[in-house]
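Checklist before submission:
- one chain only
- standard amino acids only
- sequence pasted in full

Submission:
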Amino acid sequence: MMGSTAVGMGSTAMSMFSGPTRITKPEFKFNGTLIVDTVMESVRTQMIKLGMEELHPPDLEVEESGCKAGLFEGKIIGFTNFHRVGDVLTVTEPLKTKFRSAFGFTDISYESGVELKCGKV
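Returned file contents:
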């Protein structure tokens, strides 16, 4: 049982704790746009550091009705040019926060070798 004063606290400090204590639901104000922009910049920096400015998808070959089409030595450039489009909607619930936004790419391109064969394959 606690006395009238706690160790290191005077009676004035304890008086503000007398009676029932009610903890109200806290309100958090997040700047979702700033948070998402910061995360996107971090991801962009990491992608560049890991050499992911240029991605190489696997070769693809499709055969249909005696014809064959193939894409080989493909290269996608421009993934690090992604950006946020518009504002970020922030939904805060107890124990979780959700951010919703649209994203886009600028100057993304795909280069590949193409092979087409019809007839006897």
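Reviewer check: The longest strand covers residues 82-93.
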